[in-house]
C-alpha cells in the first residue's frame, strides 16, 4: 500500500523531471488530482489534551467517558 504522501512525491517528480502536466502525471501514477491538491489541516488541541491529562492524574479511576463529562 502506498501512502498519499508517496503518491504526491511521485507526481511532483514526474512534473519536475519529465515536464508533465499535473493531469498527465496524476493519470500515470494512478491517483486522483484531489489527493494531490488536498491540504491537510491539523486542529491544535494541546490545551484540551493537557486538561484531560490533569483530570486523569487527579481521578485515576475515571474512564475516558467520565473525564469527558468533566471537561
Automatic annotation (TrEMBL):
It comes from the Bacteria. This is Putative transcriptional regulator. It comes from Sphingobium jiangsuense.
